[in-house]
C-alpha cells in the first residue's frame, strides 16, 4: 500500500504504472452530530446502511477506490465526530485534506446553519485549495423537510461549493458526490506521501499573499459572517454552482 | 443481607488464630509489574483527597515524552513536527475555550428562560420532576454530577434537566457547609447513604441503599470524576469554569452520557473497579509472550506510550514505554471506552482520551481497532503524537498479520470461548466463589459465576457481600487483616496481606478451621496457575 514517495516522484512512467495509477485523495466529513456523516461513509465504502448508528468517537478512518473518467482515485476518508467536545479536533483532519464534505440534515435547520460556520472555518484555517461539497442528507424524509433544496443550492453556488441532497439510506447521490469531488480536484499534484513535502509545495506555489493563515488568536468562529465570497474571490479558477447530475 | 448473620471476627493477627494461614508467598506477585497503582483504596479518604487537592494534578507527562522524543536524534526533522504538535495542543485548548466563552453567552439566556418557567409553573413542575416519580425513587443507586453553581450535568436515572430542584438542594447543602469552612462528606438517612465529592468546579453526589460503604461510594465518585476528566481534561475543565462559573457543561459532555452509564453499570457488576485491579484473559504464558513480542516488534515507534489488547473487559497484554506505567484506574477508563462504544467496530478510529492518573492536563491519542471479524479482540495504541494515525494503522496491520501467523488470535478466541474457569477446578468442595487480587501487579482473578449465583438477583447479593467484606477489612478506623463472617446463606472469609487480598465465599456450614485450610489450598492452586491467570512480566518498547 504505502509507496516509497521519493522513488515514485523521481521516476514517473516507470514499470510501477503497470497497475492503475491511483491518486490519493484525503477527504474529511464535517457537520453536526447525528446528520449522517458515518452513514454516508458507510454507504459509500461498504454499500450498506444501518439505521441508528452509534455516534462516532473522535474520528474513524476508511478508504475506498473509485474510477472517475478513467482515473483511479483512492479516497482516504476521515469521518469526524460531530459532538461539541470533539469540535476543537477538526483542524487535525481538514488540515491535510484535499476535499471536505460538510453534511447537514434537511430535517433539522440548525444543522444547516452550522454549515456556514464550517465554511468560514475552512476558508480561514483550511488548506487553500480544498474542494468543498455540501450534502443535505436524509433527503428521503421529504415529509419532515425543513431546509429547502433551493436555499442550500443557492448558498453553495455563492461560495463555489459542490452541492447535492443525499440519502445514505436510499443511496441517492452518495457515490455521485464523491465522483463530483474527484472531478473538482485541482489538476494533478504530487500524490500525497509525506505530509511535510506537500505542505511546503503548497505554501510555495499556491499561497495567496493576501491571505494570512496565522493570527489564529481570533478563533474559528470569530470572523464576521458573510465573508465566504472573499476567499472565493481569491480563487477565480474554481467553477461555480456545481450541481450533482 | 449477609450482615444480618452473626459475625465472628479475627480482627487481630494473633498467632493462635492465624497460625495455619500461610502468607509467605503471594501468587501473582511480580517485581516487574505492568500496572502500577501508587495509591490504594486505604488512601482514599476525605483527608487524603483534601491533601491531594492541594497538590497539583498529575500533568506534564505527555509533554515530557514529546520533549524527550524531540531530543532523540532522528533523521526526520523533529522540531517543526513537535512544535506543531505542541502549539496545536495549546491552540486546541484555547480554541475550545474561546468557543466556550461564546456559547456560554448563549447558554444562560436559554437557561434563564427555563428557570423562571419552573418557578412560575411550579405545580406543573412537580408533576414533571423525576424526583416525584416512584420508579425513579426506587432506584438502588443514584449518581449525580452538578456544577459548583448547581447546574445539572448528569444523572444516572431520569433526565438531569428534570432534576433541577433536587440538584439545587444538593448544591445548597454543600455550599452551606462550605460557608462554615467545613466540608460535607456524607449523610445517612434511613437506608440511604448520600456521599458527596467536591472536586474543582464539580459536585458529585452518590446515593445508595445497597451495601456500598461511604468510602466505596467515594471511590465510585472518583471514577466518575475521572471519567469527566477523561473526556475534557483537567485543564480545560478548569479553564471553562474559570471563565464562566455557570457554564452548562452538558454541551461538552453530549454523547458522553453512555460512558457514565456504562461505567456505573460496570461498577455494580465488575469487582475490578472496586479492587482497582484488572482481570487478565487466561492464556498460556508462551502465547502471551508471542502477542507481546508481536506488538514490540511492529510498533516500536517513538511517541507510542502504551499498546494493549483488551477482550471482554479483560486484559490480554500491555506493552508500555520505559519509565511509564498505566494506573489501573486509567485502564478501567480505557476498558469502559471500548466497552461502551459500538462505533469502534465499524472502522479504525482515532480518538483523544485523557488518562487522569497518567496526565490530567492533556490528551493522548488512541488508535482503536478490532483484530478479528467478531469484533472481540480490541487493540489500542496510545500515542502522544496527534499525527501518527497512519503509522499506527500500518503497525496494526503488521501486528495482526503476525498474530495470525503464530495462531495467537486463534488462541485468544479459544480462551474467550472456553470461559474462564470453574470454582470446581480449584478442587475445594465448599468454596463457592472468590476474588483474589495480587497487589503488586494490580491484577485480580476470580472464577465464573455458577450456581447458586446464576440469577441477576443472586449475583447482586454476592456482589453486596463482597462489598461488605471489602468494607469491613478496609474500614479506615479499624482495618482488619482477617475477617471470618458467618452469614445466613454463606460464610465469608476475607484476608489481606502485603502481597494480596483474598475474598472467599463458602457454604454456610463450613468451620473456621476448614475455611482456613481451604484458603491455603486455594492459594496453592492460584500459585500453580499464576502464569496463566496473571501477566507477570512487563514488556516495554
TrEMBL record, chain A:
Gene3D superfamilies: P-loop containing nucleotide triphosphate hydrolases. One of its GO terms (molecular function) is GTPase activity. Coiled coil: none annotated. Residues 216-225 have a biased composition (Gly residues). InterPro entries: P-loop_NTPase, Small_GTP-bd, Small_GTPase. Keywords: Nucleotide-binding. It comes from the Eukaryota. It holds the Pfam family Ras. Residues 188-245 are annotated as: Disordered. The keyword Nucleotide-binding applies. Residues 192-202 have a biased composition (Polar residues). The keyword Zinc-finger does not apply. NCBIfam families: small_GTP (TIGR00231). Belongs to the small GTPase superfamily. Rab family. This is Uncharacterized protein.
UniProtKB/TrEMBL annotation, chain B:
Residues 141-263 form the FUZ/MON1/HPS1 first Longin domain. Pfam families: Fuz_longin_1 (PF19036), Fuz_longin_2 (PF19037), Fuz_longin_3 (PF19038). GO terms for biological process: protein targeting to vacuole; vesicle-mediated transport. Residues 430-530 form the FUZ/MON1/HPS1 third Longin domain. One of its GO terms (cellular component) is Mon1-Ccz1 complex. InterPro entries: FUZ/MON1/HPS1_longin_1, FUZ/MON1/HPS1_longin_2, FUZ/MON1/HPS1_longin_3, Mon1. Residues 1-117 are annotated as: Disordered. Residues 67-82 have a biased composition (Polar residues). Residues 302-399 form the FUZ/MON1/HPS1 second Longin domain. Plays an important role in membrane trafficking through the secretory apparatus. Belongs to the MON1/SAND family. PANTHER family: SAND PROTEIN-RELATED (PTHR13027), VACUOLAR FUSION PROTEIN MON1 HOMOLOG (PTHR13027:SF7). This is Vacuolar fusion protein MON1 homolog.
Amino acid at each position: 500500500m504505502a509507496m516509497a514517495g521519493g522513488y515514485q516522484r523521481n521516476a514517473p512512467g516507470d514499470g510501477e504504472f503497470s497497475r492503475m495509477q491511483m491518486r490519493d485523495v484525503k477527504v474529511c466529513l464535517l457537520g453536526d452530530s447525528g446528520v449522517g456523516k458515518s452513514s454516508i461513509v458507510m454507504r459509500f465504502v461498504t454499500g450498506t446502511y444501518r439505521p441508528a448508528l452509534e455516534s462516532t468517537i473522535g474520528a474513524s478512518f476508511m478508504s475506498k477506490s473509485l474510477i472517475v473518467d478513467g482515473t483511479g482515485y483512492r479516497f482516504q476518508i476521515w469521518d469526524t465526530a460531530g459532538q461539541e467536545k470533539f469540535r476543537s479536533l477538526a483542524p487535525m483532519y481538514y488540515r491535510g485534506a484535499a476535499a471536505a464534505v460538510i453534511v447537514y440534515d434537511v430535517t433539522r435547520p440548525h444543522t444547516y446553519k452550522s454549515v456556514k460556520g464550517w465554511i468560514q472555518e475552512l476558508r480561514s484555517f483550511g488548506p487553500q485549495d480544498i474542494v468543498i461539497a455540501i450534502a443535505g442528507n436524509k433527503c428521503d424524509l421529504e415529509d419532515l423537510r425543513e431546509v429547502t433544496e433551493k436555499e442550500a443550492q443557492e448558498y453553495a453556488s455563492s461560495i463555489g461549493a459542490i452541492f447535492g441532497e443525499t440519502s445514505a439510506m436510499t443511496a441517492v447521490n452518495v457515490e455521485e458526490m464523491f465522483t463530483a469531488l474527484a472531478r473538482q480536484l485541482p489538476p494533478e499534484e504530487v500524490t500525497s506521501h509525506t505530509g511535510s513535502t506537500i505542505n511546503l509545495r503548497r505554501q510555495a506555489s499556491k499561497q495567496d499573499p493576501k491571505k494570512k493563515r496565522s493570527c489564529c488568536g481570533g478563533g474559528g468562529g470569530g470572523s464576521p459572517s458573510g465573508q465566504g465570497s472573499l476567499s472565493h474571490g481569491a480563487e477565480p479558477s474554481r467553477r461555480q454552482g456545481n450541481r450533482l447530475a | 443481607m449477609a450482615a444480618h448473620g452473626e459475625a465472628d471476627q479475627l480482627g487481630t493477627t494473633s498467632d493462635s488464630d492465624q497460625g495455619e494461614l500461610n502468607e509467605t508467598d503471594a501468587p501473582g506477585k511480580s517485581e516487574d509489574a505492568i500496572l502500577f497503582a501508587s495509591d490504594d483504596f486505604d488512601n482514599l479518604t476525605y483527608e487524603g483527597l483534601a491533601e491531594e487537592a492541594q497538590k497539583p494534578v498529575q500533568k506534564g507527562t505527555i509533554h515530557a515524552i514529546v520533549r524527550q522524543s524531540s531530543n532523540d536524534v532522528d533523521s526526520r526533522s523533529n522540531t517543526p513536527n513537535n512544535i506543531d504538535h505542541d502549539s496545536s495542543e495549546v491552540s486546541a485548548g484555547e480554541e475550545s475555550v474561546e468557543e466556550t466563552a461564546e456559547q456560554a453567552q448563549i447558554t444562560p439566556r436559554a437557561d434563564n428562560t427555563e428557570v423562571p418557567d419552573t418557578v412560575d409553573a411550579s405545580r406543573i413542575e412537580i408533576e414533571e420532576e423525576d424526583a416525584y416519580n416512584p420508579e425513579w425513587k426506587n432506584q438502588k443507586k443514584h449518581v449525580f454530577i452538578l456544577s459548583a453553581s448547581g447546574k445539572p450535568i448528569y444523572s444516572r436515572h431520569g433526565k438531569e434537566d428534570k432534576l433541577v430542584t433536587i440538584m439545587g438542594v444538593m448544591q445548597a447543602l454543600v455550599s452551606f457547609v462550605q460557608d462554615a469552612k467545613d466540608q460535607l462528606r456524607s449523610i445517612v438517612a434511613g437506608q440511604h447513604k448520600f456521599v458527596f465529592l467536591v472536586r474543582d468546579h464539580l459536585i458529585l453526589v452518590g446515593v445508595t441503599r445497597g451495601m456500598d460503604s461511604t468510602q466505596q461510594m467515594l471511590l465510585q465518585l472518583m471514577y466518575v470524576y475521572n471519567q469527566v476528566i477523561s473526556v475534557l481534561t483537567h485543564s480545560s475543565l478548569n479553564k471553562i469554569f474559570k471563565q464562566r462559573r455557570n457554564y452548562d457543561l452538558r454541551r461538552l459532555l453530549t454523547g458522553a452520557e453512555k460512558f457514565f452509564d456504562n461505567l456505573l453499570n460496570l461498577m455494580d457488576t465488575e469487582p475490578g473497579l472496586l479492587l482497582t485491579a484488572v482481570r487478565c484473559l487466561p492464556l498460556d504464558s508462551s502465547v502471551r509472550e508471542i502477542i507481546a513480542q508481536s506488538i514490540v516488534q511492529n510498533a516500536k515507534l517513538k511517541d507510542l506510550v502504551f499498546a494493549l489488547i483488551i477482550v471482554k473487559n479483560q486484559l490480554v497484554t500491555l506493552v508500555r514505554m520505559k519509565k511509564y506505567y498505566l494506573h489501573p484506574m486509567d485502564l478501567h477508563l480505557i476498558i469502559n471506552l471500548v466497552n461502551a462504544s459500538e462505533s469502534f467496530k465499524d472502522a479504525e478510529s482515532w480518538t483523544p482520551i485523557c488518562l487522569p492518573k497518567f496526565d490530567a492536563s492533556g490528551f493522548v491519542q488512541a488508535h482503536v481497532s478490532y483484530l478479528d471479524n467478531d469484533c472481540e479482540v480490541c487493540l489500542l495504541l496510545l500515542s502522544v503524537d496527534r499525527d501518527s494515525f497512519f503509522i499506527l494503522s500500518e503497525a496494526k496491520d503488521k501486528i495482526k498479520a503476525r498474530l495470525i501467523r503464530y495462531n495467537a488470535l486463534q488462541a485468544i478466541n479459544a480462551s474467550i470461548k472456553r470461559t474462564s474457569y470453574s470454582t470446581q477446578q480449584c478442587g475445594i468442595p465448599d468454596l463457592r466463589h472468590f476474588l483474589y487480587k495480587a497487589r503488586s501487579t494490580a491484577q485480580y482473578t476470580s472464577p465464573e459465576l455458577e450456581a447458586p449465583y446464576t440469577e441477576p438477583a443472586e449475583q447482586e447479593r454476592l456482589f453486596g457481600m463482597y462489598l461488605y467484606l471489602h468494607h469491613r477489612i478496609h474500614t479506615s478506623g479499624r482495618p482488619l487483616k482477617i475477617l471470618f463472617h458467618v452469614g445466613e446463606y454463606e460464610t465469608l472469609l476475607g484476608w489481606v496481606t502485603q502481597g494480596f487480598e483474598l475474598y472467599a465465599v463458602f457454604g454456610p456450614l463450613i468451620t473456621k478451621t476448614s475455611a482456613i485450610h481451604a484458603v491455603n489450598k486455594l492459594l496453592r492452586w492460584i500459585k500453580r496457575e499464576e502464569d496463566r491467570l496473571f501477566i507477570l512480566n512487563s514488556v516495554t518498547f
